[in-house]
Design a protein that fits this description.
By secondary structure, the protein is an alpha+beta fold. 48% of the residues lie in helices and 9% in strands. It is built from 19 helices and 8 strands. α2 runs antiparallel to α6 and α9 packs across α19. The longest helix has 30 residues. The two termini are 24 Å apart.
Length: 446
Amino acid sequence: MRFFGNGLNGAYLRDVLPQDGSEVEWVKAAIAYGSDEKTLVQNCLELGKRLDIWMRYDHTVPVSPALLNHLLRSEQRNIFCKLVPDVLHAKVIWWRGYGAYIGSANLTDRAWMTNIEFGVFLSEVELEAARAIGELEVFFGALESCDELVELTEDLIKEQAAIQRARQKLEAEAESKSRAMRSRGVWGGPAFVGGRRAAVDRQREAFIKEWRNGASILAHLAEQAPSFRPIWLNEDVPPAWQADQFLHAYYYNQVVDGPAHPFEDFYKKNFGSPSSAVKAAFQWWSELRSPPSEEDVNCHERAPVIRRLLAPSTIEALTEAELHELLQANHSSRDHIRRMTLEELRVDPSAGGSVDRIQAFARLLYRQRNSAGQSFPEVLEFVLDGGAPEDMPLRLFEAAGERGFAHVGKNQLAEMAGWARPEKYSPRNGRTSKALRALGFNVKVY
């Protein structure tokens, strides 16, 4: 945790901007007022990271026309701005995988450099440990679903520029005249204001809808996958696993370019015809003479381990050693645990590189109980077998939220479900979603 007060404590918000090589998947921000193009926006452009930013719209020109114009011109480079009328006053920036800033600073040069501001930056590990990821998801989910969002257009920029000129010339009459020039009436606030429960309900509904759409796409790919099975992949590998490893190979060998993960660029290229992109990718996959990134190991060794450990008859009796084996075999679990600090793993920092991080996390997770008093194996059983397969998204949402454990999110649980029950579910983690977007499918990356 780091505090930023600019000159007051010598810690400037500009210093928290991620650098090249930082683990950032995408960026979401809600900042009411702004005029600065050179900090947050420029950093996202330089790193090639998608930015979704919500800013304020009203008759006082809270965002300078110059910045609005820059944001609109940057849409082709994955910078997307929506405007919330009248009531937005937040200052939050979330770099997924890196951390979040919450404070008082608007997107202005003065706020980032010379004003007396105050805010806190929490790393992604700290957010996970505090189970605050869900709070950020609820907040930004509410903004995304707001019916009153104003689209950023050329006409709106011209309107705001005209209002700005009117206010500059007619200071005394600015309030009444600028209100009259607005194309939309003053908004009294979101109709869906109803507390956290209402926000969670909306987020749940949106998640279930999106997840079912993704499941339908994955099921269709699984139907096709056996026809394009490469020669080194065993014939008895379940179709859902074949489709997943097709996406794994495609993403890491056709999309990833060194440290860059330009799946949004691929999405813009392929969204007009995902079927054509899939056909070409499947053809490439079928002609591979050897596995490019351990797809054979994943299907022949790791996935069967998860299927065995999470069999319906044995899942609740999972031992600590078996939990270690499960986490070791699950791709998204390994990927997340490697980023955890030794402090978060409750390991003596002096142990250094000799630590088996997965074993340390398995020990920690095995002893934990969630807010309902359930163990992790009990929650796994709930996700996999706690109801009809078509209702799994609802159980997944609960298991990663109200029934959740720190450092175990939707991606890990859904991937385990697909390996354990391929006849019911397809594995889906962050990489799966990125690969689907790269192929042109409009899915969300969690």
